[in-house]
Design a protein that fits this description.
This protein has 13 helices and 20 strands. By secondary structure, the chain is an alpha/beta fold. Strands 1, 2, 3, 4, 5, 6, 7, 8 and 11 form a 9-stranded mixed beta sheet that branches. The protein has a 4-stranded antiparallel beta sheet with strand order 17-14-12-20, with no helix packed on it. Strand 1, helix 4 and strand 2 form a beta-alpha-beta unit. Helix 3 packs across helix 9, helix 6 packs parallel to helix 7 and helix 8 packs parallel to helix 9.
């Protein structure tokens, strides 16, 4: 099995940080955001799907993923493909066939980091093989195409565009930073996708990077990244985390602030980095990741997407028609086990104690139809209550504070429980002595 490592992906933040701190790009973005006229493109939400993790997939497996994505309000899968994978053509054919049969859309993202650069001829033949499919996602009648990295091959794209009869091109060339992208690379594209989806150190994610990229691509299109989590511990030395915690809720609030043309969720099935929102497919989990992925489902994160996506597309909070509650947490206090040499931040960033980056809390988001009380109890501890004073999405958290046991969460109205859910017990220390920094995600459905 081939797993697409994302080690090269995070190196993109180096030049981005330099640009933001030294060039002052973000300082003038407020006026750009207020005056920019975005392209006349319907908003859409995509999920990053790593084809390298689907070597065992059948058309039915693709159909299962597609059904789950459609039910969550996702408009298309972004199919990440490496240049030298033997089963890419087979799986693309399976994916497009399943999407055609199920009324779903797809588009290609050429990965220039996992296995090296793509040749012009291979990119052209791959686009041409699928551009006529009814499942091909198009913008202004042209197939949408993206990349993971590859800015050194930016000069290939005029020829590619010509040979395939036109594309709408939104590459991820985050490694160059927004200023260099604007000055040297924007000419080759129809906008950009940023991979800068996680905060550095013991801080929460902000929109500083998004505003810089938004300004850099104007008057073209911006595709904004949204991700719920990040933890990786893969051999030989890919071993770090970034803060997730509240981000699956707060990042969607930032989407409402930025109002990007598109949103790309990272990811559907990148198990090795713990930000998957799709089902866990055993054959797709990379060697070394089972220890932190097995029995750690994330699918209930998707249950919140119809609400968030509707708010993004309409600009208004949708009416909640059924009470739901969804929650996530790690299964033990961070410091209760060995960190297994996990770092807080990537290797090129300043080292931060991972146990300072993550927070020992249970995080939750309740979708409520009218004012309610939310009760959260860990084990036999005293329940903590929260007042949700209006209908809509209510998000909060509560610390472990030394409590262990089953997590129980309820939405209560007029003295009666209207919906509830229970989660895997929090334990005082991990059984194997090593902290699992991945999240367990549950919900009421």
């Amino acid at each position: 099995m081939l797993y697409y490592s994302s080690l090269a992906r995070v190196a993109s933040a180096i030049s981005l940080l330099s640009t933001l701190l030294l060039c002052g790009t973000a300082s003038s973005v407020g006026s750009v955001l207020s005056r920019r006229q975005a392209p006349n493109i319907p908003k859409a939400v995509f999920a990053h799907h790593i084809v390298g993790n689907t070597y065992s997939y059948t058309t039915n497996d693709w159909a299962n993923d597609i059904t789950k994505a459609k039910n969550a309000g996702i408009d298309a899968f972004v199919l990440n493909i490496g240049a030298q994978t033997s089963y890419t053509d087979t799986q693309l054919a399976n994916a497009y066939a399943a999407a055609e049969q199920n009324g779903f859309k797809l588009f290609l993202s050429f990965d220039y980091a996992a296995q090296g650069a793509w040749s012009i001829s291979s990119v052209v033949s791959t686009i041409n093989a699928h551009k006529g499919s009814a499942a091909q996602f198009k913008v202004n009648g042209l197939p949408l195409v993206s990349t993971f990295e590859g800015p050194d091959n930016s000069g290939d794209w005029p020829s590619i565009r010509s040979q395939v009869g036109g594309i709408f091109f939104l590459p991820d060339w985050t490694s160059k930073g927004p200023d260099a992208f604007h000055n040297n690379l924007l000419q080759y594209t129809d906008g950009a996708f940023s991979w800068d989806a996680w905060p550095q150190g013991a801080t929460d994610m902000t929109t500083t990077s998004d505003k810089a990229w938004y300004a850099a691509v104007q008057p073209k299109a911006y595709m904004m990244p949204v991700s719920p989590w990040f933890y990786t511990n893969l051999p030989p030395d890919k071993n770090w985390l970034w803060r997730g915690d509240d981000m699956w809720h707060t990042r969607w609030q930032q989407v409402l602030e930025i109002k990007p043309n598109f949103v790309e969720i990272i990811s559907w099935n990148d198990y090795g980095e713990s930000h998957y929102i799709g089902p866990i497919i055993n054959s797709g989990v990379p060697s070394g990741a089972h220890k932190y992925v097995d029995n750690m489902p994330h699918e209930h994160w998707r249950d919140l997407l119809p609400y968030y996506i509707a708010a993004y597309k309409t600009g208004q909070s949708p009416t909640v028609t059924a009470d739901k509650v969804h929650f996530w947490y790690r299964l033990s206090p961070a410091a209760a086990g060995s960190s297994d040499n996990t770092a807080g931040n990537a290797p090129y960033q300043p080292y931060t104690d991972p146990n300072q980056v993550v927070q020992d809390k249970v995080f939750f988001t309740a979708l409520i139809t009218s004012p309610s009380t939310v009760s959260l109890q860990i084990g036999n501890g005293t329940p903590v209550t929260f007042t949700a004073s209006s209908a809509g999405a209510f998000h909060s958290s509560t610390p472990f504070n030394g409590k262990t046991g089953t997590v129980t969460i309820k939405v209560i109205r007029n003295g009666s429980t209207v919906v509830s859910a229970t989660g895997t017990p929090i334990v005082a220390s991990p059984a194997n002595g090593k902290t699992n920094y991945n999240a367990w995600v549950g919900g009421s459905g």
